[in-house]
Amino acid sequence: MQRGISQLTIYILIFFCPLFSLGTYEILNFPQDARSLSLHNAATSYDSPFLRNNPAAVPLNSNGIMYSYLLLPANIHSGEIQKITVTCNGARLSKLSFMSYGPIIDSGTNEKTTSFDIIAELGYKKEVGNIISIGISGGYLMSSIAGYHSQLIFSNIGIRSRMMRERIGMGFSLENIGFVLKSYTDVKEAIPILFRSSVYYRLKYLPTIISIDIIYNINENITELSGGIEFNSTQHFNLRLGCSSKRIEFLTNNFSSDWITDISGGIGFKVNTMNLDIGFMNLGAAGYVVGFSMSKKLD
Question: Using an 8 Å Cβ cutoff, are 298 and 66 in contact?
Protein backbone atom coordinates (compact mmCIF):
# COMPACT_ATOMS: atom_id res chain seq x y z
CA MET A 1 0.00 0.00 0.00
CA GLN A 2 2.82 2.38 0.85
CA ARG A 3 4.48 1.63 -2.46
CA GLY A 4 1.16 2.23 -4.22
CA ILE A 5 0.83 5.67 -2.64
CA SER A 6 4.35 6.53 -3.76
CA GLN A 7 3.70 5.37 -7.32
CA LEU A 8 0.45 7.36 -7.47
CA THR A 9 2.35 10.49 -6.42
CA ILE A 10 4.93 9.91 -9.14
CA TYR A 11 2.32 9.49 -11.86
CA ILE A 12 0.55 12.67 -10.78
CA LEU A 13 3.84 14.59 -10.89
CA ILE A 14 4.84 13.22 -14.27
CA PHE A 15 1.60 13.13 -16.20
CA PHE A 16 -0.56 15.83 -14.62
CA CYS A 17 1.42 18.98 -15.18
CA PRO A 18 4.13 19.07 -12.52
CA LEU A 19 4.97 22.72 -13.04
CA PHE A 20 1.94 25.04 -13.04
CA SER A 21 0.04 23.41 -15.92
CA LEU A 22 3.21 22.72 -17.89
CA GLY A 23 3.83 19.25 -19.29
CA THR A 24 6.71 16.82 -18.96
CA TYR A 25 10.15 18.18 -19.93
CA GLU A 26 8.75 21.71 -20.08
CA ILE A 27 11.92 22.95 -18.41
CA LEU A 28 13.22 22.96 -21.99
CA ASN A 29 10.76 25.76 -22.80
CA PHE A 30 10.56 27.66 -19.52
CA PRO A 31 12.65 30.87 -19.30
CA GLN A 32 15.83 30.38 -17.30
CA ASP A 33 17.10 33.96 -16.96
CA ALA A 34 15.57 37.26 -15.83
CA ARG A 35 15.48 38.95 -19.25
CA SER A 36 13.70 35.99 -20.88
CA LEU A 37 11.33 35.83 -17.93
CA SER A 38 10.39 39.51 -18.15
CA LEU A 39 9.75 39.26 -21.92
CA HIS A 40 7.64 36.11 -21.50
CA ASN A 41 10.22 34.10 -23.46
CA ALA A 42 9.56 36.23 -26.56
CA ALA A 43 11.96 38.44 -28.55
CA THR A 44 13.93 35.40 -29.71
CA SER A 45 14.85 37.04 -33.03
CA TYR A 46 16.34 40.12 -31.33
CA ASP A 47 19.88 40.11 -29.98
CA SER A 48 20.15 37.93 -26.90
CA PRO A 49 23.43 38.22 -24.99
CA PHE A 50 23.36 34.49 -24.23
CA LEU A 51 21.93 31.20 -25.46
CA ARG A 52 18.14 31.00 -25.58
CA ASN A 53 15.54 29.27 -27.76
CA ASN A 54 17.06 30.40 -31.07
CA PRO A 55 20.86 30.00 -30.96
CA ALA A 56 21.19 32.21 -34.07
CA ALA A 57 20.22 35.33 -32.07
CA VAL A 58 23.45 35.49 -30.05
CA PRO A 59 25.47 38.61 -31.03
CA LEU A 60 29.13 38.33 -31.99
CA ASN A 61 30.40 41.37 -30.11
CA SER A 62 31.98 40.12 -26.90
CA ASN A 63 32.82 37.24 -24.61
CA GLY A 64 30.76 36.98 -21.46
CA ILE A 65 29.50 34.94 -18.54
CA MET A 66 26.06 35.00 -16.87
CA TYR A 67 24.58 33.72 -13.61
CA SER A 68 20.82 33.44 -13.11
CA TYR A 69 18.50 32.46 -10.29
CA LEU A 70 14.70 32.05 -10.40
CA LEU A 71 12.32 31.45 -7.50
CA LEU A 72 9.04 29.81 -8.50
CA PRO A 73 5.90 29.12 -6.45
CA ALA A 74 5.84 26.03 -4.20
CA ASN A 75 9.46 26.76 -3.23
CA ILE A 76 10.87 25.62 -6.59
CA HIS A 77 14.34 26.96 -7.38
CA SER A 78 16.09 27.35 -10.72
CA GLY A 79 19.69 28.31 -11.43
CA GLU A 80 21.80 28.69 -14.53
CA ILE A 81 25.31 29.59 -15.61
CA GLN A 82 26.24 30.45 -19.20
CA LYS A 83 29.39 31.38 -21.05
CA ILE A 84 29.94 32.74 -24.56
CA THR A 85 33.30 32.75 -26.32
CA VAL A 86 33.55 34.73 -29.58
CA THR A 87 36.14 33.77 -32.18
CA CYS A 88 36.88 34.92 -35.72
CA ASN A 89 34.69 32.09 -37.01
CA GLY A 90 31.66 32.55 -34.76
CA ALA A 91 30.56 32.07 -31.15
CA ARG A 92 30.85 29.02 -28.91
CA LEU A 93 28.19 28.73 -26.22
CA SER A 94 27.88 26.63 -23.10
CA LYS A 95 25.11 26.42 -20.52
CA LEU A 96 24.37 24.50 -17.33
CA SER A 97 20.86 24.72 -15.83
CA PHE A 98 19.38 23.23 -12.68
CA MET A 99 15.82 23.19 -11.34
CA SER A 100 14.99 21.81 -7.91
CA TYR A 101 11.36 20.88 -7.16
CA GLY A 102 12.06 20.29 -3.50
CA PRO A 103 11.68 17.13 -1.40
CA ILE A 104 8.83 14.65 -1.71
CA ILE A 105 7.84 12.78 1.45
CA ASP A 106 6.15 9.37 1.32
CA SER A 107 3.13 9.62 3.64
CA GLY A 108 3.47 5.98 4.66
CA THR A 109 7.18 5.66 5.36
CA ASN A 110 8.10 9.35 5.82
CA GLU A 111 10.96 8.67 3.43
CA LYS A 112 12.22 11.85 1.79
CA THR A 113 13.39 11.95 -1.84
CA THR A 114 14.39 14.81 -4.10
CA SER A 115 13.12 15.94 -7.50
CA PHE A 116 15.19 17.94 -9.95
CA ASP A 117 16.13 18.59 -13.59
CA ILE A 118 19.67 19.20 -14.87
CA ILE A 119 20.50 20.47 -18.36
CA ALA A 120 23.95 20.68 -19.96
CA GLU A 121 23.97 22.37 -23.38
CA LEU A 122 26.54 23.47 -25.96
CA GLY A 123 25.93 25.71 -28.97
CA TYR A 124 27.54 27.42 -31.93
CA LYS A 125 26.52 30.52 -33.92
CA LYS A 126 27.83 31.69 -37.31
CA GLU A 127 27.04 34.68 -39.51
CA VAL A 128 26.89 34.23 -43.28
CA GLY A 129 27.69 37.33 -45.33
CA ASN A 130 26.37 39.70 -42.63
CA ILE A 131 22.88 38.81 -43.84
CA ILE A 132 21.85 35.55 -42.19
CA SER A 133 22.85 34.05 -38.86
CA ILE A 134 22.77 30.30 -38.31
CA GLY A 135 22.89 28.65 -34.90
CA ILE A 136 22.73 25.17 -33.49
CA SER A 137 22.81 23.79 -29.96
CA GLY A 138 22.61 20.38 -28.39
CA GLY A 139 22.13 19.23 -24.84
CA TYR A 140 21.47 16.51 -22.31
CA LEU A 141 18.62 16.55 -19.78
CA MET A 142 18.52 14.38 -16.67
CA SER A 143 15.30 14.46 -14.67
CA SER A 144 14.57 12.79 -11.34
CA ILE A 145 11.23 12.68 -9.53
CA ALA A 146 11.17 10.80 -6.22
CA GLY A 147 13.54 8.10 -7.42
CA TYR A 148 12.10 7.83 -10.94
CA HIS A 149 14.63 8.97 -13.53
CA SER A 150 14.50 10.07 -17.14
CA GLN A 151 17.20 11.11 -19.59
CA LEU A 152 17.07 12.61 -23.05
CA ILE A 153 19.20 14.28 -25.70
CA PHE A 154 17.87 17.32 -27.56
CA SER A 155 18.95 19.96 -30.08
CA ASN A 156 17.82 23.38 -31.33
CA ILE A 157 18.41 24.76 -34.83
CA GLY A 158 17.73 28.38 -35.77
CA ILE A 159 18.25 31.07 -38.39
CA ARG A 160 17.87 34.83 -38.23
CA SER A 161 17.97 37.70 -40.69
CA ARG A 162 17.87 41.48 -40.19
CA MET A 163 17.24 44.39 -42.55
CA MET A 164 16.67 48.15 -42.67
CA ARG A 165 19.82 48.80 -40.62
CA GLU A 166 18.76 46.09 -38.18
CA ARG A 167 15.48 47.83 -37.35
CA ILE A 168 13.50 44.76 -38.49
CA GLY A 169 14.45 41.17 -37.89
CA MET A 170 12.91 37.74 -38.13
CA GLY A 171 13.94 34.30 -37.03
CA PHE A 172 12.86 30.69 -37.20
CA SER A 173 13.85 27.83 -34.94
CA LEU A 174 13.08 24.16 -34.50
CA GLU A 175 13.47 23.32 -30.84
CA ASN A 176 13.80 20.22 -28.66
CA ILE A 177 14.49 17.79 -31.47
CA GLY A 178 15.76 14.63 -29.86
CA PHE A 179 15.00 11.29 -28.30
CA VAL A 180 14.42 9.85 -24.85
CA LEU A 181 17.28 7.66 -23.60
CA LYS A 182 15.35 6.54 -20.51
CA SER A 183 11.77 7.29 -19.56
CA TYR A 184 10.34 7.66 -16.04
CA THR A 185 8.12 4.60 -16.40
CA ASP A 186 7.19 2.05 -19.03
CA VAL A 187 5.19 4.80 -20.75
CA LYS A 188 7.56 6.92 -22.86
CA GLU A 189 6.77 10.65 -22.59
CA ALA A 190 6.86 12.85 -25.68
CA ILE A 191 9.46 15.62 -25.97
CA PRO A 192 7.75 19.03 -26.49
CA ILE A 193 9.06 19.76 -30.00
CA LEU A 194 8.40 23.35 -31.07
CA PHE A 195 8.57 25.32 -34.28
CA ARG A 196 9.02 29.00 -33.46
CA SER A 197 8.79 32.02 -35.74
CA SER A 198 9.67 35.43 -34.37
CA VAL A 199 9.77 39.00 -35.59
CA TYR A 200 10.89 42.24 -33.98
CA TYR A 201 10.62 45.90 -34.95
CA ARG A 202 12.74 48.67 -33.49
CA LEU A 203 10.83 51.95 -33.57
CA LYS A 204 12.45 54.82 -35.44
CA TYR A 205 11.75 57.69 -33.06
CA LEU A 206 11.46 55.85 -29.75
CA PRO A 207 14.11 53.58 -28.19
CA THR A 208 11.66 50.68 -28.13
CA ILE A 209 11.71 47.15 -29.54
CA ILE A 210 8.43 45.31 -30.13
CA SER A 211 8.62 41.53 -30.53
CA ILE A 212 6.14 38.77 -31.31
CA ASP A 213 6.79 35.02 -31.23
CA ILE A 214 4.48 32.39 -32.72
CA ILE A 215 5.10 28.99 -31.12
CA TYR A 216 3.69 25.81 -32.60
CA ASN A 217 3.81 22.68 -30.44
CA ILE A 218 4.16 19.90 -32.99
CA ASN A 219 3.19 17.02 -30.68
CA GLU A 220 0.08 18.67 -29.27
CA ASN A 221 -0.89 20.62 -32.43
CA ILE A 222 -1.24 23.82 -30.39
CA THR A 223 -0.23 27.32 -31.46
CA GLU A 224 0.55 30.02 -28.90
CA LEU A 225 1.55 33.66 -29.10
CA SER A 226 4.06 35.44 -26.91
CA GLY A 227 4.95 39.12 -27.08
CA GLY A 228 7.34 41.53 -25.45
CA ILE A 229 8.22 45.23 -25.38
CA GLU A 230 11.66 46.47 -24.39
CA PHE A 231 12.14 50.18 -23.72
CA ASN A 232 15.77 51.29 -23.69
CA SER A 233 15.51 54.71 -22.07
CA THR A 234 19.28 55.03 -21.77
CA GLN A 235 22.35 52.89 -22.39
CA HIS A 236 22.25 51.97 -18.71
CA PHE A 237 18.56 51.21 -18.06
CA ASN A 238 15.94 48.99 -19.74
CA LEU A 239 12.26 48.43 -18.99
CA ARG A 240 10.53 45.26 -20.22
CA LEU A 241 6.95 43.93 -20.43
CA GLY A 242 5.52 40.71 -21.83
CA CYS A 243 2.39 38.57 -22.13
CA SER A 244 1.15 35.48 -23.95
CA SER A 245 -1.98 33.82 -25.28
CA LYS A 246 -1.89 31.44 -22.27
CA ARG A 247 -3.50 34.24 -20.28
CA ILE A 248 -6.97 32.84 -20.92
CA GLU A 249 -6.03 29.61 -19.10
CA PHE A 250 -5.29 31.50 -15.86
CA LEU A 251 -8.37 33.76 -15.70
CA THR A 252 -10.64 33.40 -12.64
CA ASN A 253 -13.35 36.01 -13.47
CA ASN A 254 -12.01 38.16 -10.65
CA PHE A 255 -11.02 41.51 -12.16
CA SER A 256 -8.87 42.57 -9.23
CA SER A 257 -6.47 39.67 -9.92
CA ASP A 258 -7.14 38.90 -13.60
CA TRP A 259 -5.87 42.20 -14.96
CA ILE A 260 -2.25 41.24 -14.22
CA THR A 261 -2.63 37.52 -14.88
CA ASP A 262 0.06 36.12 -17.20
CA ILE A 263 1.81 39.50 -17.32
CA SER A 264 5.58 39.58 -17.08
CA GLY A 265 7.98 42.47 -16.65
CA GLY A 266 11.35 43.56 -15.44
CA ILE A 267 14.19 46.05 -15.51
CA GLY A 268 17.83 45.94 -16.50
CA PHE A 269 20.84 47.96 -15.35
CA LYS A 270 24.26 48.31 -16.93
CA VAL A 271 27.29 49.50 -15.00
CA ASN A 272 30.57 49.42 -16.92
CA THR A 273 30.98 45.79 -17.99
CA MET A 274 28.32 44.44 -15.61
CA ASN A 275 24.61 43.89 -16.33
CA LEU A 276 21.95 43.21 -13.70
CA ASP A 277 18.47 42.08 -14.75
CA ILE A 278 15.41 41.58 -12.55
CA GLY A 279 12.23 39.98 -13.87
CA PHE A 280 8.91 38.47 -12.82
CA MET A 281 6.06 36.50 -14.36
CA ASN A 282 2.52 36.20 -13.02
CA LEU A 283 1.09 32.67 -13.14
CA GLY A 284 -2.38 33.56 -11.95
CA ALA A 285 -3.59 31.60 -8.93
CA ALA A 286 -0.30 29.65 -8.85
CA GLY A 287 1.64 32.77 -7.87
CA TYR A 288 4.70 34.61 -9.22
CA VAL A 289 8.06 33.68 -10.65
CA VAL A 290 10.85 36.11 -9.69
CA GLY A 291 14.29 36.05 -11.29
CA PHE A 292 17.70 37.73 -11.05
CA SER A 293 20.53 37.57 -13.57
CA MET A 294 24.02 39.01 -13.51
CA SER A 295 26.32 39.03 -16.51
CA LYS A 296 29.80 40.35 -17.18
CA LYS A 297 31.83 40.95 -20.31
CA LEU A 298 35.13 39.10 -20.43
CA ASP A 299 38.31 40.14 -22.20
Answer: no
